[in-house]
Specification:
Blueprint: H1 3-6, E1 8-10, E2 13-15, H2 17-31, H3 40-54, H4 59-67, H5 72-82, H6 93-103, E3 113-117, H7 124-137, E4 142-148, H8 151-159, E5 161-163, H9 172-178, E6 179-181, E7 189-192, H10 194-197, E8 200-204, E9 217-222, H11 231-243, E10 245-253, E11 267-270, E12 273-275
Length: about 280
């Protein structure tokens, strides 16, 4: 097939097939993410502004910049732009129902209840968990670690500041109790209350690398992430997470995902919910 038929376009730049394959290899090597051929337009659109920023003539020139070692910060920018971060508050509500009705009642009284949101994106998931824990546990100790490979979305997450349209799935009682409505120029936004923001520790982590010391968790969420991994990467990532999951702890994944053929150390207890014996 000729290049002119298959090349992608973004802001006037053309992405050749061989260049796209190089981006595929680079993202897989760095983040374990497999870009399908259908993502070619996404690569074009998201990286075109970086070519313009550096006044480069082609995606090939940008690849040289990324792999040359002289601009490590630019490599992080490219990863941030190419990783998909679609999420919303209280996504997959049956998981939150299970946490409320099964996991929390069985917790050990007095000990801190620790949760890891392992691909937290722009923060909606850990803040949703924080609202539920604040509601259900009262003054009992709990904490949340929230991580992502993208520094860009972590900056947004740490702010706890969102457009009001993002509040659609937050229960009204939680919205009143844990969110501050913006006024004046911020009238169409809301801010998660500091009492919750202070209970979440945000960290930049690559799940495809050895984990730093995080401690053990009663609950880990890795939802809607493994769809971007091949089988070998899934096995390695889940093995790392299982190692820091307490006995009796739970792992939640996306409803479109499965651990069949990935991990036999966890028991399925509900759709997309697994327990470590």
């Amino acid at each position: 097939m000729s290049t002119t038929v298959t090349e992608g376009r973004g802001a006037g730049y053309r992405l050749l097939d061989r260049e796209f394959r190089q981006f595929q290899d680079l993202l897989y090597r760095l983040a374990g993410i497999s870009l399908s051929p259908a993502k070619k337009a996404l690569v074009c659109g998201r990286l075109a502004k970086r070519l313009k920023h550096h006044r480069l003539a082609s995606y090939g020139d940008y690849l040289k910049l990324l792999t040359g070692g002289s601009e490590p910060q630019e490599l992080q920018i490219a990863i941030d732009l190419l990783t998909t971060n679609e999420t919303y508050f209280f996504r997959e509500p049956k998981h939150f129902d299970f946490l409320r009705s099964h996991i929390l009642p069985a917790r050990r009284p007095g000990s801190p209840f620790r949760v890891w949101s392992a691909a937290c994106s722009s923060g909606e998931e850990p803040y949703s968990i924080a609202m539920l824990l604040a509601d259900c546990l009262g003054g009992a100790p709990w904490e949340i670690v929230a991580s992502d490979i993208s520094t860009r979305v972590l900056d947004r997450a740490q702010s706890g500041h969102y457009a009001m349209e993002r509040a659609e799935h937050i229960p009204a009682t939680y919205l009143r109790a844990y969110c501050l409505k913006g006024i004046g120029r911020q009238h169409d936004t809301f801010l998660v209350d500091r009492s919750l923001r202070d209970r979440i520790r945000f960290r930049q982590l690559n799940l495809n690398e050895p984990l730093p010391t995080l401690g053990e968790f009663e609950l880990i969420l890795l939802r809607n992430v493994m769809i971007y991994f091949d089988l070998d990467t899934k096995r390695k990532v889940v093995q790392r997470l299982t190692a820091v999951l307490k006995s009796g702890g739970h792992l939640m994944i996306g409803h479109s995902e499965s651990l069949n053929g990935v991990c036999d150390a966890l028991q399925s207890v509900a759709p997309a919910i697994y327990r470590k014996p």
